[in-house]
């Protein structure tokens, strides 16, 4: 498989999407993509979480106790086809929202959806 740099640009997002495609993940299928925002205080995280809920976003909020610093994480769950331009647009929006609420954008990820034809049995 040859990499199409228009579909998978040579940057972090393009590299992740390319790796997903190389691993056999069907990028034409919708995935639940998780975007993360990080905050230094519970109060800031809660204000941002309330804003995101008003924007009708599906979120979770938790304290990252494994972090060296006391950090609160908001995860936003978006069900979408993992397309480069859409991910970049959402990253820009979430970066702006995080900054407006005293936090920072902390990246995205999703579960891989890889199916082996042999795993699907016909009855």
TrEMBL record:
Stretches assigned to the Regulator of ribonuclease activity B domain: 11-110
InterPro entries given in the database record: RraB-like_sf, RraB_dom
Annotated protein name in UniProt: Regulator of ribonuclease activity B domain-containing protein
Protein source organism: Acinetobacter silvestris
């Amino acid at each position: 498989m040859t990499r199409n740099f228009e579909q998978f640009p040579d940057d972090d997002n393009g590299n992740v999407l390319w790796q997903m495609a190389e691993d056999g993940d069907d990028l034409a299928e919708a995935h639940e993509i998780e975007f993360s925002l990080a905050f230094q205080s519970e109060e800031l995280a809660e204000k941002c979480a309330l804003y995101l809920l008003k924007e009708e976003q599906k979120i979770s909020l938790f304290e990252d106790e494994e972090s060296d610093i006391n950090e609160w994480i908001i995860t936003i769950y978006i069900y979408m086809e993992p397309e480069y331009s859409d991910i970049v647009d959402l990253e820009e929006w979430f970066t702006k929202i995080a900054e407006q609420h005293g936090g920072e954008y902390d990246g995205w990820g999703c579960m891989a959806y890889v199916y082996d034809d042999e795993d699907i049995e016909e009855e």
